[in-house]
Design goal:
Blueprint lengths: L3 H14 L10 H14 L11 H15 L4 H5 L1 E4 L2 E4 L12 H11 L6 E5 L5 H9 L4 E6 L2 H13 L5 E5 L14 E6 L14 H4 L4 H4 L8 H9 L4 E11 L4 H10 L3 E7 L6 E6 L1
Parallel strand pairs: 3-4, 3-6, 4-5, 6-7
Antiparallel strand pairs: 1-2, 7-9, 8-9
Bound molecules: S-adenosylmethionine.
S-adenosylmethionine binds next to helix 6, strand 4 and helix 9.
Length: 285
């Protein structure tokens, strides 16, 4: 029987040799293998323990999925965001660590209000909404998403984390929100699907082959269709002085800032968090 350490070394070699997975930094393959083994055992492995045959077989099956490109979060069914463990699954976008910066920016602006209202559009499994609801128990938080699967997972996450101040509704952008929120919202956040259809073929297989198409692109050539609608409709929902926060990739930051400015927002800035793969544009009405 092989030890956990031997199994992990072997797994690392398999993942390093795979062309279906990204190799973003040294050690990533080992981290993925450890995450999968921990999931199989339900605890951290001891390097010297021998794996029983059924655990070794299950690990082998899950590792083969990873070697074919499937993201670890879909294999284990969970992802950590802002200190919260969230359920994730096929059919819903996997929360990215880079979005923690947008949650921080929202929390900073909402903290001073006595009964703050936050709307997270295109919420996915709810990472930003749930981070705000957890940090600010007095806040009322609403998340919307067009698709059923992410909304089901977001509701399940809110329930498991006992965050009763977060509510998730299914529909197009602002459409499913209670009308009474118009003119009352302190902060709107959105991490939209902004990849233009032309750009799609440059997206790694790990993402394009597994994450839902509707979470990556809005189907427009430049990827600005959904964002333009958000920017046009947001002023009708924000209170005077309320903030719009938009997460995009650094190369889109200037273009999106221009759209936000032209819609009449003030103090429009591009902010950069500790994970440099995205920017959060901020502007107030
Ligand atoms: C890039 S993902 C972001 C998800 C989540 N906010 C996060 O950061 O993990 C974009 C999300 O937009 C949702 N979406 C796409 N079109 C939408 C629409 N018209 N209205 C609301 N949500 C939409 C997708 O289902 C997906 O969950």
């Amino acid at each position: 029987m092989p030890t956990a350490e031997e199994v992990l070394r072997d797994a690392e070699r398999t993942l390093k040799a795979s062309r279906a997975v990204e190799h973003p930094h040294a050690g990533k393959e080992r981290i993925d293998a450890e995450q999968i083994l921990e999931h199989v055992l339900g605890r951290e492995p001891d390097p010297d323990e021998t794996l029983d045959p059924s655990a070794a077989r299950r690990f082998g099956r899950l590792l083969a999925r990873r070697a074919a490109g499937e993201p670890p979060a879909y294999i284990t069914g969970r992802e950590e965001f802002h200190g919260l463990w969230l359920d994730v699954g096929r059919g819903a976008f996997i929360p990215r660590q880079s979005s923690e910066w947008m949650a921080d920016q929202a929390i900073r602006r909402l903290r001073a209000r006595s009964r703050p209202v936050h709307v997270d559009l295109a919420t996915g499994v709810g990472p930003v909404a749930l981070a705000v609801a957890s940090a600010l128990p007095r806040a009322r938080v609403f998340g919307t998403d067009l698709f059923a699967r992410p909304v089901t997972l977001a509701r399940r996450n809110a329930e498991r984390l006992r965050l009763r101040n977060a509510r998730f509704v299914r529909g197009d952008l602002f459409a499913p929100l209670p009308r009474a929120l118009q003119g009352m919202v302190d902060v709107i956040t959105v991490h939209p699907p902004y990849i233009g259809t032309r750009e799609l073929r440059t997206i790694p297989h790990e993402i394009l082959g597994f994450e839902p198409r509707g979470s990556l692109t809005d189907g427009s050539p430049e990827g600005m269709g959904l964002l333009s609608r958000v920017v046009a409709e947001a002023p009708g929902w924000l209170r005077p002085g309320g903030w719009l926060l938009v997460e995009v990739s650094p190369d889109r930051s200037k273009q999106v800032a221009g759209v936000i400015r032209r819609a009449g927002f003030r103090d429009v800035r591009s902010t950069k968090g500790p994970v440099p793969v995205s920017r959060v544009l901020t502007g107030r009405i």
